[in-house]
């Protein structure tokens, strides 16, 4: 068996100890005589798995007791519809901060349910930065302000946590799509009304969606919201109104335990800073490659970069793959390359990438 350095943006690499443990437990989980995929979601074995996963996530992110953690399905794209259906209540307008492809897609979807006010947009500068709070222009009475705090495709990450109190609008809940940087850095959950993300970037398998929602926002859904997507129904039933993605929850739980063994979010954040400094430091010092994002807003998780001579792109991809470094091709809307370096990517993987890039540049210069 041999494993590659996998820079996929998602579904993405998982910690190897997690995959090994899952393999060992595949046929017989803790003496149950069956694997996790085969268990009733209401049986005591699976209930204990789900409860531990939720408790570990709550501990890792220091989720306050007035927030509920929901395990849902449909991914972040489905949440783009589920959020307005749940949070609009009697209101007619929602505000969106557009910082790249994912927030753009979210505001388009929301237009099916409500009026959308673009509170701020970085489109004019090609989505290379995050508009500072002072530039956000909220509407008079929005149901919420939507943000995507790490734009996976553009490689733009908020360098601050949105705090509407600083612009005198602390009463409006902030919603954050955290799909691609959840658990990569400390976060003050109390600044948000709702955080959500698909699991397949930094947590576990595709198919599991995590929602963390302040409990006063439950029970505001519009009348035609599907019951299985009504946050209050999901919360009241402990995420088991419908059958939850049981295997995804199990793997997520193993990832949470792995994170705790690493020292928790603060420790993994320090590693993520070191990884990002290594890669961006190399890019900035090179006249062969470049990253085009405002240095203050560069993502620690998704690093898009370009070869200055784009004619060498195919050779770069072929030779990096031959060297055991895969999934480096940039998103089709951006071009160039992208290295996603989530929690499961060790510093050694980033070092291997930088070593390859240096070698490739030397051979082609
Ligand atoms: C990957 C991603 C999505 C899309 O997730 P799906 O699981 O395909 O719905 C949305 N937002 C962000 C920030 C992402 O990284």
From TrEMBL:
N6-(pyridoxal phosphate)lysine modifications at: 201
Domain of life where this protein originates: Bacteria
Chain positions recorded as L-glutamate binding sites: 42
Annotated EC: 2.6.1.52
Biological processes annotated in GO: L-serine biosynthetic process; pyridoxine biosynthetic process
PROSITE patterns given in the database record: AA_TRANSFER_CLASS_5 (PS00595)
Cofactor: pyridoxal 5'-phosphate
InterPro entries named among the record's database cross-references: Aminotrans_V_dom, Aminotrans_V_PyrdxlP_BS, Pser_aminoTfrase, PyrdxlP-dep_Trfase, PyrdxlP-dep_Trfase_major, PyrdxlP-dep_Trfase_small
Coiled coil: none
Chief localisation class: cytoplasm
Function: Catalyzes the reversible conversion of 3-phosphohydroxypyruvate to phosphoserine and of 3-hydroxy-2-oxo-4-phosphonooxybutanoate to phosphohydroxythreonine.
Family listed: Belongs to the class-V pyridoxal-phosphate-dependent aminotransferase family. SerC subfamily.
Protein name: Phosphoserine aminotransferase
Naturally occurring in which organism (per UniProt): Parazoarcus communis
Gene symbol of the encoding locus: serC
